[in-house]
Every structure is written in structure tokens, then in C-alpha cells.
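Progress note, sequence design subtask.
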């Protein structure tokens, strides 16, 4: 009986091992088939049309395996490469670019961020995290490193609660800010990019968000960190490191001019990637959505090479002749007391266009918009090449600043500032303010009057002298005539 029982136990164990082996083999076959299918899908995506290739005389872009991709100039917003850039796709953890942008816009880096139970336990255990526990707290700056370097989901939630009070309110802020930035194909439902059917964006929208993200030097620095050390504190007891999985940031793939970026992945989104790099005076943002590893990195390199090698930056004010009025001498405005002047209207010297290498500035078409009200801008010139937007420039009205100078004997600047600060409204602090321009105008008028008086006086004196000279001549003439008549009385 005992022997039979043992045999049954052994048979059951062997059957279990056999069944496990079969299941493992079947899963392995299934996984292999899935990888094969994914490779076929990626290959099929390479045949999708590239919209930027349809622009006449535009450099042909590389065929990549991503469903959607964009290469955008970070300064001008000019699009160099476009492939399905408005298609709604899942962003995965590249969502955290928006989360960190809002944290920087609405928080202080030294503030402490606490971790609630909801922030920690509403994310999957197997997802990206840095092991924060309920009740712990770290600075907002450390949170940003945790999100961008470690892609920590619970940290994104904690930051949301710090900024808005709740995760739901922060998500609402994400959608509001996206609309403000010009996003039209984005909708967020969470802070970290975990899959949700209603959580989506487009390559173009994500590039717009990244454009503002990389304008912030601190955010760029954080996103370009290969490895970060989290040290223990009184509110966070662990000592650990987090490594950035972005191969162009951590050095696994060397590329010149990388400024930072963010990775993303879910089973539904596949690989997503945002990267920023700068070369040849151009700062480019590359977004790749729905790609297979490691092609998201190689595709990005290929797109960067395409942009940096095929396009050039041209300064508008240095090349524009049609709208350039710098040489119109009568359109000048005096702007200081020493006679120097500048044009009343001028083209912004910090405006640029991005054009193909084979194009010249004279090849561009331009339109002028006068319906603007931004500072001293009076018009905006938009430039296109073969119908594609390549940049813009503002026509600015010269700002006249009336300068006043104050003089006070025996007092330095600090004394004057202190006296001004201590003077109550309406009280005379004894400081004399002199408007140099008015003084010079008054002096000029006074000198003109004095000169006129001298001229009138000289004319009067000259007239008087002329009369006296004429009188003397007349008297001499009369005397000569009398003498001649006296001689006529004698007969010689």
C-alpha cells in the first residue's frame, strides 16, 4: 500500500514535470512567434509614407520601423521630418516629460515631497519604481531625478499630489497645459504613462511638450543624467543608484551633442523615445513612437544625422532684403544724448529659418501678418519653402527710453538709494533730477536767440556806418564843387 502510494506520488511528480516542460516549450514557441510577428510589423511600418518627402526639393528622409516619428527644431518649431506625426498613439513613460515640466513650472526644487499610500500602491508592483514607502519624503529635485533617470511611477504620483493636491487634479492640469501648448491629439489619464485606452498623444504633440521641456536648463540637465545617487536622509533611509535606460544618454550609444531624453515602454505602446541633441547651431528634438528595441535608438541616430547633415540655419536679419529697412536714413530715431540712433523699425536679429542645404534665402516665400500685439512687435513675417513652414521673424518698433540723470554732491549711489527708500510719498528728498535732453534743447533755443540778437545788432550798426560813410562822401563832394567854383571867378 505504501509502495503503491509512493509510486503514485512519483508518477504525479513526473507528470507535473512533463506538463511544465510542455507548457514552457509551448510558451517559448509562442514567444518566438510573437517576436517574429513584431519584426514583420516593424518591417511593414518602414513602407509607410513619409509626409515630409512629399515637399518639393526637400531632402528624402530615412525609412524607419517606427509607426510615427518627427524631427523638430527646438527653437523655431520647424519640422524637418514627418511620419504620421498627428496619429494618436500610446506614449508610455515619455508621459513623464509633461509631469516634470509641470512640476518645474509649479514647484520649488528644495520643497519636500511626501509619499502617500495612494501614490505608492496605485502603481503595479512590477513596473518602474524606486522603492519609496508610505510616509517617506524627498526633495522635489530628487523626485525629478527619480522620474527622468529611474522612470519611477510612484514618484510621478507623489509629485502630482505635491503640485495639485491630488492625482486627478494634476491629470486635469496636464490636459489643460497640453492644450495651452498647442496639442490637439493628446489626452492624459495618469501621471506616468501606464497603459490606458484613453491615455494617448501624437509625435507632434509630444515634440511640442518636449520643446518647452528642453528650454529649461535644469530639466535638460536632469534628463541628461546617466546615473544618479540617492543618499539616505532622515526621511528616506536607503542608499542606492538609478541608471538611465536611454542608450544615447548613458553612453551605450555614443552621439555628439545629446542634451537629454526619456524612454518609454508598455506592451501596447511598444518602444517610445524622446531625445534632444544640438549640432551646427541647430537644436533638434526627435520623437519615435511604436518601435521595437533597440531600433528606437538607431532610428533616432539616423534621424539626427538626417537633420544635421541636410539642413542649415540662416539668420533672417542678415539675409532679408525685401523687408529690411535698416538703410532708410530718414527712418531713424534718436535714442541717446550723444546723437547715436537706430531704425524706427527693424527685423529681430535673433530670428532664424531652417532650410535644406541646397536652398538659398532668396528661394523662400514670405507673408506678413500685421495683426499681432506682442510687446514692440508691429508685424510678423512667416517664411515657407515649397509650401513648408521654415521659420519666422518679427518686425520690431524701436523702443525710446527717456533717460534721466540725478546729481547730488558728496553722495554715492548707495546713499541715494537709501534716501529714496526712506522718503515717504509726496515728500521732497532733496534730490535734483535733470533731463539732459530738455536742458540741451533749452540751451540750443537760448543760443539761437542770442545769435539772432547779435546778428540784428550787427545789421543795425552796419547800416548806421554806411549812412555815415555816405554823408562824408557827400560833404567832400560838395566841398570840391565849391572850391572849383571859386577858381572859376579868377581870370589867369
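Output:
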Amino acid at each position: 500500500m505504501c509502495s503503491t502510494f509512493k509510486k503514485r506520488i512519483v508518477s504525479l511528480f513526473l507528470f507535473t514535470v512533463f506538463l511544465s516542460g510542455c507548457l514552457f516549450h509551448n510558451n517559448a514557441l509562442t514567444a518566438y512567434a510573437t517576436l517574429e510577428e513584431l519584426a514583420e510589423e516593424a518591417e511593414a511600418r518602414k513602407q509607410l509614407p513619409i509626409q515630409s518627402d512629399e515637399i518639393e526639393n526637400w531632402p528624402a528622409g530615412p525609412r524607419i520601423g517606427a509607426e510615427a516619428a518627427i524631427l523638430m527644431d527646438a527653437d523655431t518649431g520647424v519640422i524637418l521630418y514627418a511620419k504620421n506625426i498627428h496619429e494618436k498613439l500610446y506614449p508610455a513613460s515619455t508621459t513623464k516629460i509633461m509631469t516634470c515640466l509641470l512640476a518645474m513650472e509649479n514647484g520649488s526644487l528644495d520643497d519636500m515631497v511626501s509619499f502617500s499610500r495612494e501614490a505608492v500602491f496605485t502603481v503595479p508592483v512590477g513596473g518602474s519604481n524606486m522603492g519609496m514607502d508610505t510616509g517617506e519624503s524627498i526633495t522635489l529635485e530628487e523626485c525629478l531625478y527619480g522620474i527622468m533617470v529611474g522612470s519611477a511611477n510612484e514618484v510621478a504620483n507623489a509629485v502630482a499630489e505635491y503640485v495639485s493636491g491630488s492625482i486627478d487634479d494634476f491629470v486635469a492640469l496636464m490636459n489643460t497645459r497640453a492644450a495651452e501648448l498647442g496639442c490637439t491629439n493628446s489626452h492624459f489619464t495618469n501621471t506616468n504613462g501606464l497603459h490606458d485606452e484613453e491615455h494617448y498623444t501624437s509625435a507632434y504633440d509630444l515634440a511640442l511638450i518636449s520643446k518647452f521641456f528642453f528650454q529649461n536648463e535644469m530639466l535638460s540637465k536632469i534628463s541628461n543624467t546617466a546615473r544618479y545617487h540617492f543618499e539616505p536622509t532622515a526621511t528616506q533611509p536607503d542608499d542606492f543608484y538609478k541608471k538611465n535606460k536611454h542608450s544615447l544618454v548613458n553612453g551605450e550609444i555614443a552621439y555628439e551633442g545629446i542634451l537629454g531624453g526619456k524612454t518609454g515602454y508598455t506592451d501596447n505602446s511598444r518602444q517610445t523615445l524622446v531625445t534632444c541633441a544640438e549640432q551646427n547651431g541647430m537644436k533638434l528634438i526627435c520623437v519615435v513612437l511604436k518601435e521595437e528595441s533597440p531600433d528606437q535608438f538607431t532610428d533616432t541616430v539616423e534621424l539626427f544625422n538626417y537633420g544635421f547633415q541636410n539642413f542649415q540655419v540662416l539668420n533672417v536679419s542678415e539675409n532679408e532684403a525685401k523687408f529690411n529697412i535698416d538703410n532708410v536714413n530718414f527712418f531713424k530715431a534718436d535714442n541717446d544724448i550723444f546723437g547715436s540712433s537706430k531704425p524706427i523699425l527693424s527685423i529681430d536679429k535673433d530670428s532664424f529659418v531652417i532650410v535644406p542645404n541646397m536652398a538659398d534665402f532668396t528661394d523662400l516665400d514670405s507673408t506678413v501678418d500685421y495683426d499681432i500685439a506682442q510687446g514692440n512687435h508691429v508685424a510678423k513675417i512667416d517664411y515657407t519653402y515649397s509650401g513648408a513652414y521654415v521659420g519666422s521673424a518679427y518686425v520690431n518698433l524701436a523702443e525710446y527710453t527717456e533717460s534721466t540723470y540725478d546729481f547730488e554732491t558728496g553722495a554715492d549711489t548707495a546713499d541715494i538709494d537709501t534716501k529714496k527708500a526712506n522718503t515717504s510719498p509726496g515728500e521732497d528728498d532733496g534730490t535734483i533730477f535733470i533731463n539732459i535732453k530738455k536742458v540741451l534743447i533749452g540751451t540750443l533755443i537760448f543760443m539761437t536767440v542770442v545769435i539772432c540778437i547779435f546778428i540784428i545788432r550787427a545789421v543795425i550798426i552796419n547800416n548806421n556806418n554806411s549812412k555815415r560813410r555816405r554823408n562824408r562822401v557827400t560833404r567832400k563832394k560838395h566841398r570840391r564843387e565849391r572850391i572849383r567854383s571859386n577858381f572859376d571867378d579868377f581870370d589867369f
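The two ends are 200 Å apart (CA to CA). Work on this subtask will continue into the next period as scheduled.
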